[in-house]
Amino acid sequence: MQIGSSHVACPLSVNQQNIEHVNRFTYLGSIFTEDGEVTTDVNCRLGKAAAVFQHMRSIWTSSVVSSSTKIWLYKAVALSVATYVSDTWKMTAKVAQKLNVFHQRCLR
Fold first, then answer.
1. Which of its termini does the chain have fewer beta carbons within 10 Å around, N or C?
2. Which DSSP string do the residues of 29-90 spell out, in sequence order?
């Protein structure tokens, strides 16, 4: 995969086998796309975090667990999944809004 607008028609090969050109691939849980946009990765991260949040539904609805413990668990588990490798994201208003919507939805 090449990132950027200029495509070089020079095939790469290893051990006399051509390497396939792809538009996107996953590496260490992050999705890299040909255009370099992070929207796909952000959507994937938020989906994984939402799944984690749903699996913990019994904790969120429990009256035995205190609110401070629930907030601590949310930050430690769900929020960390959502923001994993966010340091590498190009932060745009759209990405910030998606993260904020996820955060507010979970806190409700």
1. C
2. TEEEETT--SHHHHHHHHHHHHHHHHHTHHHHT-SSS-HHHHHHHIIIIIIHHHTTTGGGS-
